[in-house]
Amino acid sequence: MKRVAGLAVVVIAIAGFATWLMLRPGRRIPSREADKRVAATPPDRYPEHPDLALEAELRAITGGIPARCGVAAKNLGNGAIARVNPDERIPLLSVVKLPVAIVVLDGVDQGRWSLDTLITLLPHDMHPRGMLGDRYPRGGGPVSLYKLIRLMILFSDNSAADALMRLVGGGPVVTAWLERHDIHDLRVDRTERDLGDDWYGLTPGSEVRAQVPVAVHDSAARAMLLDPRDTGTAAACVQVLERLWRGRLLSGAMTDTLESLLSRCKTAPDRLPGMLPKGTPVARKTGTGGVSEGVTVAVNDVGVIRLPNGDDVAIAVLIGESREPVRRADRTIARIARTVFDAWSTPDSTGSHGGS
Q1: Any bridge partners for residue 316, and if so which?
Q2: For 93, phi and psi rounded to 5 degrees?
Q3: pTM (two decimals)
């Protein structure tokens, strides 16, 4: 009997322990595991709600310009959004250097190379203008991976961009990477050299752009306005920025590296930062096309603006086929940025004034 009674006690104890395991609070997921679960959430699941009043203001600004214009802005703090023609496909130009940088830095995360990896520049990488082109007109080096990324982001150096594009395997590889990460409507197809040659109308094997007949160049420039390659939408650009800022595309170290570089962008300072209060943090990447027959291929700026309350705003302004001077397009971008900044910076603003 004692043996039976002892066995009963053991059974009761085991049953009680099992019940406790079932009823106790769930284990807190470590932050890294939680990040992995959040990262699996599709990007369009992030909370957002339209700010209709702000959209009306932006439409008033863009409605009068002689160009195709796509605008998207999202407050990453409260989910407010404002969009005007966000799905309009417009040539990205040097904005493609942002996704190129992301794919290169993902290679660092994957152990394919490091920021200190030395890259030898090939003659076909080189462009006649820019820091690298001036120093290594026929190629050379080697140059560190980090320096190439820095020159590409801060100064939009085309030689650096083409060397990095070659490293990752070409534009279609970048586009495929974006697609795998659920980022659509953003294409990277050609190197900067090939893009420029196509715009000039340079035939294969030719080297001197200045020798292209004017009629041939004008025809090629018009064709580029209809070319779907290397185009994207404002909505897709904001999606890239949001996922980058939320740490969903790269490791923490590589995210910090790229955000730091974008915050020191030197090109076209009169665009997104042009009308913002002095000292407002802005991280961005610009793109500017050539002018033919009075039409500029595109004038773009995409980036993240820090509001006074600490919220970040991902914003993209793409202006295609502009029939006004570039400086006026710059001013339009600056007006849009300031309008968004003011609308979402008021003390009582929730980013939904007039919205639903």
Answers
A1: 72, 302
A2: 55, -130
A3: 0.84
